[in-house]
Design a protein that fits this description.
- The chain has one domain: Response regulator (Rossmann fold).
- The chain is built from 6 helices and 10 strands; from the N terminus they run ααββαβββαβββαβαβ.
- It has an 8-stranded mixed β-sheet with strand order 3-4-2-5-6-7-8-10. A two-stranded antiparallel sheet has the order 1-9.
- The longest helix is centred in the N-terminal third of the chain and has 26 residues.
Length: 187
């Protein structure tokens, strides 16, 4: 009973921390020095990093650098480099790569596809069929186009939805904490 209660308390603390991280990032930055695009990149980078901690990859993907690829959002790429490139996911050092297209797609743990690159989603979906890659997008139909996580703006707040079938197709396990924080879980 006590163990169950302490587990519940820990889960509540994790949820609160994940919800508050973007708020801390937003409040820690002076508004006049950054434009809206950079503020969004700061918040998205925090989400991406926390997503990585709350998703499990197969054991075969846990023995090298943890590679996050960014396609089409240079501000997000810069934020990830500056804040998270010296951190770890589990025991894996984070490596962040900026992708210019889908022709030379390295083996990635995470692929972020920006809103302006949605036209390449069918190509990415084809290339990632057998890959254990968490695809994150920011398009209204991102889940339909193969993304596992998709950013959406609701009431002027950045939220996310989860494509559970897409996660299963990529042999990824979405943690219960992440599911509980999602705006929507699509089966």
């Amino acid at each position: 009973m006590i163990l169950s209660l302490s587990c519940k308390i820990i889960n509540v603390k994790r949820r609160l921390l994940l919800l508050l991280i973007p708020l801390f990032c937003f409040s820690a930055v002076d508004g006049p020095q950054l434009d809206e695009k950079n503020t969004n990149a700061i918040i998205k980078s925090s989400y991406v990093y926390n997503f990585c901690k709350l998703v499990s990859w197969p054991d075969s993907r846990k023995d090298s650098n943890f590679i996050i690829g960014v396609l089409g959002d240079p501000d997000l790429y810069k934020q990830l480099i500056s804040k998270y490139s010296s951190k770890l996911i589990g025991n894996q050092p984070i490596e962040i790569v900026q992708l210019l297209g889908t022709e030379q797609m390295p083996e990635l743990h995470v692929l972020f596809v920006s809103r302006n690159m949605v036209n390449v989603m069918p190509s990415i979906q084809t290339k990632m069929v057998k890959a254990h890659t968490l695809v994150i997008s920011e398009h209204p139909d991102g889940i339909k186009h193969g993304a596992t996580l998709n950013f959406v703006v609701i009431d002027n707040q950045l939220k996310f939805e989860i494509g559970e079938t897409n996660a299963v197709n990529h042999d990824l396990t979405i943690g219960s904490t992440l599911k509980s924080l999602a705006n929507k879980v699509i089966k």
